[in-house]
Amino acid sequence: MKRATASIPLSMTGYGRSAKRTAVGDVTVEMRSTNHRYLELDARLPNGLAALQGRLTALVRRQIRRGRVEVQVAVQFDRRDRRRVSFDAALLERYHAALVELKHRFGLKGEVTLDHLLALPQALAISEERTPTEELWEPIRQATEAAVRELVRSRQREGAKLVQDLRAQLAAIERHVRAVKRRLPKAFEQQRRRLRERLQELLGSGSPASPSQLEQAAALAKDADINEELVRLDSHLAHVRQSLAGRELVGKRLDFIAQELMRETNTMGAKVNDAEAAQHVVEIKGCIEKIREQVQNLE
How confident is the model over 66-80, as pLDDT tens digits? Predict the structure, then answer.
């Protein structure tokens, strides 16, 4: 079975079901998938079909790469009674001979009847017809493949919704970043004014600056500059968009990028000493938190 491909990342949440009619009854395969760091399969088959579990899990692994997947296989046999009644002729003959011997030994009257024999242990045995393992594998395989396709389509639909919302969050972050950039000239002017005041305090009335004072002044100037953080933010946002347009596993990668986005935003928030710009930084953090929650569900 060729692995299904998608133009967008897949969600790890989905559902698939398929049923097949066979000569002995109906086969139904149901699949549910949820979030998981890796691929974890839980395949459950009816009694007597455990030998098929390896083939079944291998079939699913070729299509699903991440998530916790529960596979439930059910076989509804035709209503005909699959139980069989048998008897051990040799054992019954020995029972009969023993009863006849006892009858003569104790001088008992009457015949040894069938009722006498049936009352003895193991006179009759009841067994159930053996489950036709190999006969059922082909319909199980077909139903599993169909259920996987439905599961993948379900994950595609959920993935499309997630990507749409992620892009909306990215657009919101970019709007707030542009707002911060527009605010920077005023914020820098305020920062420079405070920096000049602080330098005057450090340098005093015209006396030469000491190395320690120069280091403090340089640190103040560096702390006022958030251009480096803005550049890295733009780079990370571009990386997120590029990842969302790909076909490979992106969940773990986007989770890492979201952490880097938050790191840069926190640094920027610590440097920005402007109420309006700081409010936009808070909004950016909120968008990043939403992104971190959503990417947990991407394959």
Answer: 999 999 999 987 766
What SS3 string covers 59-117? Answer: HHHCCCCCEEEEEEEEEEECCCCCEEEEECHHHHHHHHHHHHHHHHHCCCCCCCCHHHH
**What gap in Å lies between CA 291 and CA 236, rounded to an integer?**
13
Continuous segment of H or E residues that includes residue 292: helix 275-295
Q: Pairing between strand 25-34 and 14-21?
A: antiparallel
pLDDT digits (tens, 9 = 90+) for 104-162: 888 888 888 888 888 889 888 877 666 678 888 999 999 999 999 999 999 999 999 99
Domains present along the chain, CATH in parentheses: 14-80+132-155 (3.30.230), 83-128 (no CATH), 157-295 (1.20.120)
Locate 152 and state its tokens.
């993948």
CB of 144 within 8 A of CB of 71?
Answer: yes
Q: Chain-wide mean pLDDT for the chain?
A: 85
Global pTM exceeds 0.85: no
* Beta-strand pair 14-21/39-44: unpaired
Q: What local confidence, expressed as pLDDT, does residue 4 receive?
A: 46
Tally Cβ neighbours within 10 Å of residue 118: 12
Alpha-carbon distance of 81 to 78, in angstroms, equals: 8
